[in-house]
Amino acid sequence: MDELPGALGTSASLALRLGQAVFAVASLLFMCLDIEFYSYTAFCFLVTIMGLVIPWSLTLAMVDAFSVFMKRPTHQSSLLSMIIVGDWILSFLSLAASSSTASVSDLLIASNGSFCTANICTRYQLSAAMAFLSWFLSLASSLFNLWLLPTS
Amino acid sequence: MDELPGALGTSASLALRLGQAVFAVASLLFMCLDIEFYSYTAFCFLVTIMGLVIPWSLTLAMVDAFSVFMKRPTHQSSLLSMIIVGDWILSFLSLAASSSTASVSDLLIASNGSFCTANICTRYQLSAAMAFLSWFLSLASSLFNLWLLPTS
């Protein structure tokens, strides 16, 4: 089997996983630090999903790191399908969470600062942007692994 | 090639496509009829995406109907990949639109009726629910066709 960059067990995949985790952490920090986010359902949803994405991405990053540094590729078909399904579900959830957050923060800004100060509104938007980036990387991982599935 | 229910050119696929179109139309009607939806970005986004989903689903429903009633299956690999990519993009967009709409209407309801009356808030929520159902059927179509791709 030829090695596909970005699929499970390659260094590109390791980079994608680390990117997902970093963006998810950034999104959480922008949302949680010193803000009372829990008065809005959409923001709670975002925090929950990002809290799921971080351990998932870090676990798979460890699998990739093991595979890259120990030169022992892990290509079990059953493991791969589980990872694809998980990636898939998480990518859908993080897309839903980030678009909810983006639209709610947009609405809060449109209400002319009666709900949040300009500084905090910007942080909501940044959090949504980080979640979008995390979604994008998660989708990329999922697609690369899906490509690999028929050949493994 | 064995026939997969739900893939392009089967009666199950025809049903899925018609379901998508019906739910998208229902979502549009709940959102647009007698409501000034265009003051909220999320609602405009939903209307745009549902306006894209309807012609797409109806076109593919016609392709399926042709294939079912004329007994002439259309399994060109290039056509199939175009349809999968289109389904994919539309399903992501409709998920984003429906979750945005759901979160914004939730926020409007939480503001105790200062932005919308109870009747209209319920219609926003129904519209989001219909868009979710349309997304779900669109995802199902996309997955069935994806399954078919390696065998065609």
TrEMBL record, chains A, B:
Family matches, as PANTHER family: CASP-LIKE PROTEIN 5B3, CASP-LIKE PROTEIN 5C1
Boundaries of every Casparian strip membrane protein domain copy: 9-137
Membrane-spanning parts: 37-58, 79-97, 128-149
Organism for this UniProt entry: Fraxinus pennsylvanica
Protein name: CASP-like protein
Keyword Nucleus: no
GO cellular component, one term: plasma membrane
Pfam families: CASP_dom (PF04535)
Family: Belongs to the Casparian strip membrane proteins (CASP) family.
InterPro entries assigned to the protein according to its UniProt record, in alphabetical order: CASP_dom, CASPL-5
Subunit structure: Homodimer and heterodimers.
Protein's UniProt keywords contain Cell membrane: yes
Location in or out of the cell: Cell membrane
Membrane-protein topology: Multi-pass membrane protein
UniProt keywords, alphabetically: Cell membrane, Membrane, Transmembrane, Transmembrane helix
